[in-house]
Amino acid sequence: MKTIEKNEVIYFQDDLAHSIYFIKVGRIRISKFNKKGKEFILNILYPGEIFGEASVMGKDKRKEAAIAEDKVSLCIMKENKMKELLLQVPMLNFKFSQILEERLEKTQKRLEDLIFKSNQQRIIEFLKDSVNTSENSNGIFRIKNSLTHDKIAKLTSTNRQEVSSVFSYLKKHNIIDYDRTYISILDFKKLETS
SS3 for 8? Predict the structure, then answer.
């Protein structure tokens, strides 16, 4: 077990891949950086999720960076121990394969969204996807507002101004409301048709 402070890098792209990580507490940002240092957020991972699976898949180096989004508690397992465990426990091997398949499907969907959807549609899609992890109270979905507009922009391949503009539009039309703590989806049907 290891505790990582907020914004601390767990590993960077091109680091050697020797371990796999299980998130116990907190969130992890998985990103790629171009040569100029510009960040492209691939995913935000939550407690119960795993990352760093490249080591188990036979990759020598990391293709992405993993950064603590909050103070994080991780369980770290060496690659050889994880491989042994996957061979010994067929159900775990099956679950691990499911996780990888779900991640691949999510990546393919994101690529399709980039090709076929406008910036506004991608931002709205992000909000709709966030409903899965939100609280529902009398048809109002409350999403913990833990990402800045800049990070939402990086997740949706847009820009911060576009995210602010779409949020303002949705708020003006009483579809969402938001503050520093929560984003409340007031009318999910209207959100779907926006």
Answer: coil
